[in-house]
Amino acid sequence: MIDIHTHILPGIDDGSPDMETSLAFLQKMATAGVAELVCTSHYIRNQFHNTLQIRQEKFLQLQQEAAKQQIPIKMHLAAEVYLEPEILNDIKKEQMNIADTKYVLVETDFTGFPINLKELLYQIVRSGYKPILAHPERYTDIKKKPEIAEEFMHRNVLLQVNAGSLLGNYGRVSAKAAWKLIELGYCHFIASDCHCRSGEYLLAEVADLLTKKFDNYTSKLLTEENPKKVINNENIDAFYLENIELGKNNFWNRFKKTLSKLRS
Ligand SMILES: [Fe+2]
């Protein structure tokens, strides 16, 4: 598995508080089957102003300590960028894209999409970046109506659902929205968004659950194949559902069955 959303860098946001916690958590991730991860510490100007220098310093320290303990996980540096006015300048200046690729992980206001959200995203896309919206299922607007997530895909924005959401860790409504997004094909990645505070690492459990509820292909696509394409800076189809053979008990198959019953 490749986890593209983690708060594993120690002591610079609300994620891991110290090196010891980060290393223990990294070990747990390796045991769970994570081969690569992206360090996406928060970048929120007035709260977590994690410049490139700060992130790089912590990244190198963690890499060195992980190598000493022979933890077999390859790490990449990025950030989770909170969308604010003129944020494009910060993305460029502080190199917040994922591992020198065009992909950049972004987040916005949980309580309601800001009026300028589309414009901010458009500026980022127009500059050649490929935004990935973190945890769409946690935003009020999408919780109310998951179908509106399609709008982002039409604007060249990909969507990353949190593993914990699928297990109900952010409440029943987020869980429902998260599963709905996957059913609709409006999810391109599942990642942990681990803050290393609870000690639990959920991506492996969720990958198994996806195999059971959908199929192995979908599970691998969202936890391995698409994340690998990010790291390799390859294109990812925003609309992919028609390309894949989905499992037996999914929305589309149920829909098709109902349709054929109605026709007969
Ligand atoms: Fe996050």
Key words describing this protein structure:
single chain; 264 residues; alpha/beta; TIM Barrel; six-stranded parallel beta sheet; three-stranded parallel beta sheet; 9 strands; 14% strand; binds fe (ii) ion
Task: Characterize the structure shown.
This protein is α/β, with parallel strands linked by helices and 264 residues long. The chain has a single domain (2-263), classed as Alpha-Beta Barrel (TIM Barrel), CATH 3.20.20.140. It is 44% helix and 14% strand. The chain has a six-stranded parallel beta sheet with strand order 3-5-6-7-8-9. Strands 1-2-4 form a three-stranded parallel beta sheet. Strand 5, helix 3 (87-93) and strand 6 (103-107) form a beta-alpha-beta unit. The longest helix has 17 residues, at 52-68. The chain is globular, with a radius of gyration of 18 Å. It starts with a strand and ends with a helix. The mean pLDDT is 93. The structure holds fe (ii) ion (FE2). Residues 5, 7, 80, 134, 193 line the site of fe (ii) ion (FE2).
